[in-house]
Design a protein that fits this description.
Number of strands: 26
Shape: globular
Function: Involved in vesicular recycling, probably as a RAB11B GTPase-activating protein.
Radius of gyration: 37 Å
Structural class: alpha+beta
Organism: Heterocephalus glaber
GO biological process, one term: glomerular filtration
Helix content: 40-55%
Number of helices: 46
Region (Disordered): 1024-1047
Subcellular location: Cytoplasm, Cytosol
């Protein structure tokens, strides 16, 4: 590798480097200890340790070339090499291309400048594509060299970043280097002759956390397949941890959770992943989640600045975040003040005349925002003007509507946009919230509750006059305070749209809902059937859903969403949530609210495995441990909280609380996201803490919580008694204390409001690994339970076999951008069908695990075994099929093993195999292997004839159902060859060859006699029966003898052999019986397979 020319003082290096070659201008050196017998003794050992500790390139590149000028002690290092071949190549290049030119220069300085320029040019050309995105390309090149040399992984394995750190082996820290690549976490250390090399695949990581104790002040704990690894002494622990977390989550999603990965094209190509890219992605995700923006947005710029808050008359310090279509601002304390400005609303971006570096953003509705102390404000204004010009041309329709927002309110802004489409739609779409239709507020009968409701409305109107109304309103602590009190019935739909971000989705997709409704009408699939079944189970006691109006609206919204997002389709709990949305929002708004909930606010909740809900339950358990330790001490099993809280998360408490109380929870959820649900869950457990601590079992605890939910009321709810689900006022004399939902929510904010968004985001990422690995473990246990009933393999052997099987599947996907195997992975399939391997992967496993893998025709045997197991001809086999073959090879009786070999040499397993490249012998290329695996009887072999023959045999001998089709002449020759290959290098090799020669000769004679008896007039010639019956070199004569006669036999009626004939003949040969019945240690084979599985793909 060419190096950036750097000065080296040769005098200090002489003891560490040995001269190999030299001329007037260059020196080739070798590191002391490398290539010497015994590693160069103590000196070599110390040099190796020094290289490792000081991170010397010499550790992985023990050769180097220096440029020298006469009469100077200063040398320049210009190249290094991992081996002699590499460095010699560089040396030869210098001699051929540089040496001749140097003689024309007059001064040493000119020579040095020329050499430096030439080497830099070579480096620039070499790294034009690979290292352009790295912060320090030169250092990264060196790190990449060390990574490749130390671990020998394929070139496609992309190194993302590297860190110096300590790995704790017991209580001893080992200083070395941690390399983070797309598929592996790797660590290398070399101290005093002790080399430590770790390679942990990200998909095997089940736990990743930051820890600290007395010895380790701050370390990163990695748990993989039950093993614990601790790494410490990082310069930036948080940065390292976040990158590790992202890479682990990326691998897990790519391999286990294809459902969500398909929706994320950014990470589709592992070769494009960089450290900077991952950091930017993490910031974008947090930015989108905090401001509830469409998931297509990416964070482009962040500027520290001050925003003028007009109603408070002060500048608040914070960050301005800019994406493709939005300008957002959040104060340093996020809850103090935040603003979202869609570029579609911006009319102009200007600067002020003073020196405050201010940016004025003018929006529709005669409002302006002033950002001051903005760095590079002029550049920012130019970019915003460019963006606004583009944005305004795309959103002409919304311009006219938004200007009228002062008088009509933002909730009416969308009617014009979708009006045309709705008129064209064949089915009417409700343009009113169901609550206004079924429970219009009667202003003439103002009772105390209605007065309170009007006072709430007035409070919000005052807030609107101060902070603005609509998508660009200021969100402040006062906003949160009003949300906690409960949003007024008349404003609920509008504010849900605003706080959820659904207002932006709807504004940028005018007419989309009406279009989807029309397309989805009349569709019939599993989702629509489930929707129809659940329609009348959604708030059945509410009048709105006892009428066709409500039911039809619910049907349209759910069917439209299932059509929009077929990967989710329809899941239970979506009907309950949507019915509540329809009560307070117009139909189209309810649809976009459902989109916001399912796709942004509760990611992965509404799919078949409800991974998102399980992740948030794990987060909830973690928060219980932190905030309610006495409860976790009392509850021996934390899974109780998971089982009891699942419905809380899936339905946002709607299924457990009365509707009039549940809507207040939904208010907080749309404002604060999942944080509100977690806080409320903690508050409920805290409120019932004393009761739960006295409960003796889970059932008693569930009863106590249900009784509590029954007594939650909303004393301020203006809903009529016919709709309310809570306890009636007449029940007040009951012994149970009523709890007001507003007080409960207020208490949850006061006690647990310090839980930060960032912490929840981090805990979600951390627990996602644990949840998915737990689901994978469940899948494995179910597969093993099913398979163990049909095989003789022990459970621990099956467990190890499954790990190797799955690892092989993933290894083939690591470096393949569009791996076809991953496309077949579907977690919703039955457990056995979730992971299936193709022929190439099966061949690798066959070579690693089969006791017959030493055979010269092992590729053909692997192919035929695969074809035999692939009964449905889809070119994939599952673990049950795979383990059944391994089980016979190791635990089968003589008859079972022979039967397997017999079946491998008759269709549908058998197909004639011949490699195109004769120099490779019996070895098959990947393309040939895949071609032959897909043949399934095409060409010379007539499978139908064999099937009918097999059927005839079965019908003739019904008493023996295990009869197999007969084996023809060419198949028998191949069968004999396979036996010869299997017996090669066996201790009893000669006796086995002799036995096979006797058996083949006997069978051929028997067939000849039998054929003469059946056809006495036949003039066929008898096959010479003298077959060489000695082992060793004569075995090849036997094979050639069989092949020579095969051509003459093909001209006559085909010979065929029944399985019983072959079995009976071989049973008379003790050497053959001993060979197939001798025990083989599967444990050793499994251990070797595990260690060599990755190594077989590396250069090590």
């Amino acid at each position: 590798m060419w190096l950036k020319p750097e000065e080296v003082l040769l005098k200090n290096a002489l003891k560490l480097w040995l001269m190999e070659r030299s001329n007037d201008y260059f020196v080739l050196q070798r590191r002391r200890g490398y290539g010497e017998e015994g590693g160069g003794g103590l000196t070599g050992l110390l040099v190796g340790t020094l290289d490792s500790v000081l991170d010397s390139t010499a550790k992985v590149a023990p050769f180097r070339i220096l440029h020298q000028t006469p009469d100077s002690q200063v040398y320049l290092s210009i190249a290094c090499g991992a081996n002699r071949e590499e460095i010699t190549k560089h040396w030869d290049w210098l001699e051929q291309n540089i040496m001749k030119t140097l003689s024309v220069f007059d001064s040493n300085e000119d020579i040095t400048n020329f050499v430096q320029g030439k080497i830099r040019g070579l480096i620039a050309e070499e790294g034009k594509h690979s290292f352009a995105k790295e912060d320090d390309p030169e250092k990264f090149r060196e790190a990449l060299l060390k990574f490749e040399k130390s671990f020998g992984l394929p070139e496609q394995e992309k190194l993302v970043t590297y860190y110096s750190c300590s790995y704790w082996k017991g209580r001893v820290p080992c200083q070395g280097w941690l390399y983070l690549s797309t598929n592996f976490l790797s660590f290398y250390s070399f101290l005093l002759g002790s080399e430590i090399k770790l390679i942990i695949s990200w998909d095997a990581v089940s736990k990743l956390e930051k820890t600290s104790n007395v010895i380790l002040t701050e370390s990163i704990h990695v748990c993989s397949q039950g093993e614990d690894y601790y790494f410490s002494m990082f310069l930036h622990t948080n940065q390292t941890y976040l990158l590790m977390e992202q890479l682990a989550n990326y691998a897990v999603r790519r391999l286990f959770d294809k459902e969500t990965f398909d929706n994320d094209p950014i990470l589709d190509d592992p070769l494009q992943i960089t450290k900077r890219g991952l950091e930017n992605r993490a910031h974008s995700e947090q930015f989108i989640a905090f401001f509830r923006l469409p998931k297509e947005e990416t964070l482009k710029e962040v500027h520290e600045c001050f925003l003028w808050v007009p109603f408070s008359h002060f500048n608040t310090h914070g960050k301005m975040c800019i994406s493709e279509n939005y300008i957002c601002f959040a104060s340093q304390d996020g809850s103090l003040c935040s603003v979202i400005i869609p570029l579609r609303e911006v009319l102009a971006a200007d600067k002020t005349d003073d020196s405050s570096q201010s940016v004025i953003i003018s929006i529709k509705g005669k409002t302006a925002f002033r950002f001051s102390e903005v760095k590079d404000s002029e550049q920012l204004i130019a970019k915003l003007r460019l963006k606004c010009g583009t944005a305004s041309s795309q959103c002409d329709i919304s311009t006219e509507v938004a200007i009228t927002s002062d008088s009509t309110g933002p909730s009416d802004n969308f009617e014009v946009q979708s009006l045309t489409c709705q008129k064209e739609c064949s089915k009417a779409v409700n343009t009113e919230a169901l609550m206004t239709v079924f429970h219009p507020q009667n202003l003439e009968t103002l009772n105390s509750k209605m007065l309170k409701e009007k006072m709430k409305e007035q409070s919000w109107n005052i807030l609107f006059s101060e902070c603005g109304r609509g998508v660009t309103m200021f969100r402040t602590r006062k906003t949160r305070h009003l949300v906690v009190r409960g949003i007024p019935e008349t404003l609920r739909g509008e504010l849900w749209m605003l706080f959820s971000g659904a207002v932006n989705d709807m504004a940028t997709n005018p007419g989309y809902y009406a279009e989807v409704v029309e397309k989805s009408l009349g569709t019939c699939n599993l989702a629509t059937e489930e929707i129809e079944r659940d329609l009348r189970r959604s708030l059945p006691e509410h009048p709105a859903f006892q009428s066709d109006t409500g039911i039809s609206a619910l049907r349209r919204v759910l069917t439209a969403y299932a059509y929009r997002n077929p990967k989710i389709g329809y899941c239970q709990a979506m009907n309950i949530l949507t019915s509540v949305l329809l009560l307070y929002a117009k139909e189209e708004e309810a649809f976009w609210l459902l989109v916001a909930v399912c796709e942004r606010m509760l990611p992965d909740y509404f799919n078949r495995r409800i991974i998102g809900a399980l992740v948030d339950q794990a987060v909830f358990e973690e928060l219980i441990r932190d905030h309610l330790p006495q409860l976790t001490e009392h509850m021996t099993d934390m899974t109780f909280f998971s089982s009891v809280s699942l419905s809380w998360f899936l339905t946002l408490f709607i299924s457990v609380l009365p509707i009039e109380s549940a809507v207040n929870v939904v208010d907080c959820f749309f404002y604060d996201g999942i944080k509100a649900i977690l806080q409320l869950g903690l508050a409920i457990l805290d409120y019932n803490l004393d009761k739960l601590l006295t409960c003796k079992d889970d059932a008693e605890a569930v009863t106590a919580l249900n009784r509590f939910f029954d007594n939650v009321t909303n004393k301020d709810s203006p809903l009529p008694s016919s709709v309310r689900q809570g306890s009636n006022e007449s029940d007040e004399k009951s012994s149970h204390i009523k709890v007001d939902i507003t007080d409960l929510i207020r208490e949850s904010n006061e006690k647990y409001g310090n839980i930060r968004y960032e912490d929840i985001y981090s805990m979600r990422c951390q627990n996602r690994l644990y949840v998915i690995q737990t689901l994978e473990e469940t899948t494995k246990q179910n597969v093993l339970r099913v398979v163990s009933q049909d095989v003789k393999l022990k459970l621990h052997e099956l467990d190890e076999l499954y790990v190797i099987f799955k690892k092989e599947l993933f290894l083939s996907c690591y470096w393949c951008l569009s791996c076809p195997v991953l496309k077949h992975h579907d977690p919703s399939l039955p457990y056995l069908e979730q992971y299936q391997i193709d022929c190439q992967q099966f061949r690798m496993l066959y070579h690693l695990l089969s006791p017959w893998a030493h055979s010269a025709n092992k590729d053909s045997l692997a192919l035929w075994t695969f074809r035999l197991l692939d009964e449905n001809s889809d070119c994939l086999i599952n673990f049950k099929e795979f383990s059944s073959a391994i089980d016979i090879m190791y635990n089968g009786s003589f008859t079972e093993k022979l039967k397997l070999l017999f079946k491998l040499h008759i269709p549908p397993a058998y197909t004639e195999v011949k490699s195109k490249d004769s120099s490779k012998g019996d070895e098959l290329s990947m393309e040939e292997l895949l071609y032959f695996s897909q043949l399934h009887g095409k060409g010379k072999i007539d499978i139908q004839a064999y099937l009918s023959q097999w059927q005839d045999e079965l019908l003739k001998k019904e008493e023996n159902i295990k009869d197999l089709p007969r084996m023809n002449q060419s198949q028998f020759i191949q069968f004999s060859k396979t036996l010869y290959n299997l017996f090669h290098e066996d201790p009893e090799e000669e006796a086995l060859y002799q036995a096979i020669a006797i058996v083949t000769s006997l069978l051929l004679r028997m067939e000849e006699v039998g054929r003469k008896l059946h056809s006495p007039t036949s003039s066929a010639k008898a096959v010479p029966g003298i077959v060489c019956a000695s082992g060793g070199p004569n075995e090849r004569k036997t094979e050639s003898h069989l092949e020579k006669n095969s051509s003459s036999l093909r001209e006559e009626p085909q010979w065929s052999f029944a399985f019983e004939q072959i079995l009976a003949s071989l049973l008379n040969e003790p050497a053959v019986v001993r060979f197939f019945e001798k025990p083989i240690d599967l444990k050793v084979k499994l251990e070797n397979a595990k260690t060599s599985q990755l190594r077989s793909r590396t250069k090590m």
